[in-house]
Amino acid sequence: MIDESYPWRKALMDSAERLEARKLQQRWRQETFYLVERDVMLGFFAIRRLIESFKVPDSVRASTHEATRFAATGVLADVWNRFEIWDLFDLENPETCKLTLREICNQFIHSWIHVTEFAEDRSFSGFMVSSDWARRKYLYSIDLYTVTGIFRTVSEETVISMEMRRLESGEMSFVHLRGPSDLSAEDQ
Asked: Is the pLDDT of residue 61 over 80?
């Protein structure tokens, strides 16, 4: 369990800034792709650890984020074809969907497919991901600013109020974890 969350939050903010700085980068080497994937993978792992350590307010933990999904064509992604996304998913028929914070974390942490996306102007625009489980159904496109927005929100929203209850088993359990924006909304 994470005791002090500040270093984790600082690392998330640093990752968001590094990712956004690459938005207009024109030359991408193999090392660049590694550094981007490292920031994203470690960032989402950190978020999941913060959630599991009760360091993220309920409102942030329950947040949903827009993504685009593409249905699987029926050809299963495996170790040989995992980057042939045009055969594996119907890229001609995108659907807008909402994913919970935990669902997004899991798509990246357990990604079977993880592709860096670029816009028509060749600027870095986001990621196409599908977890080992989701690859049977969908490929998700998640915008760069959705990712960095999540990193920034989690890094800024700390738990400042908590409510706990003892369960019948005798174990203490968190009922509510509130952040600064939750309390200011309640005060109005």
From this structure: yes
